[in-house]
Design brief:
two-stranded antiparallel sheet, globular, 2 domains, mainly alpha
């Protein structure tokens, strides 16, 4: 896992435009999807779309455009990108076979991992 924190809304928006997993690959399994408690609370579901992403980066509710936090200061943390990667051998096997069952298994493992992260962060 790799965690990358962004403090630039402009850079985050540009990353969305050029990243391969946020909408440019024709295989729907490779596109980003909203999931997790925060997405649920914000009413986000399905494929990640640029307008909702940009609003979040700008500290706005994706549906209403209302500000999400009380304060907004220069140099704020725009977001953190957690990248969960399968072992290289799994990636190569999928690249060679294009077997979507492999991709689905990797995604299920990623979703389970995020579920575990959320449990550790839950303050209820």
């Amino acid at each position: 896992m790799r965690a990358t924190t962004s403090t630039s809304a402009t850079s985050s928006k540009r990353y969305f435009e050029i990243s391969d997993y946020l909408g440019h690959d024709p295989n729907p399994l490779l596109k980003g999807h909203w999931f997790g408690k925060a997405a649920h609370l914000l009413g986000l579901e399905g494929e990640v779309d640029k307008q909702a992403f940009d609003r979040l980066v700008d500290n706005e509710h994706p549906a209403t455009g209302e500000r999400l936090t009380q304060r907004m200061h220069a140099g704020r943390r725009v977001g953190t990108d957690f990248t969960l990667s399968a072992p290289k051998s799994v990636s190569l096997l999928w690249a060679e076979s294009r077997d979507d069952d492999i991709l689905k298994a990797v995604q299920q493992a990623a979703f389970k991992t995020v579920d575990e992260f959320e449990k550790d962060c839950d303050r209820d």
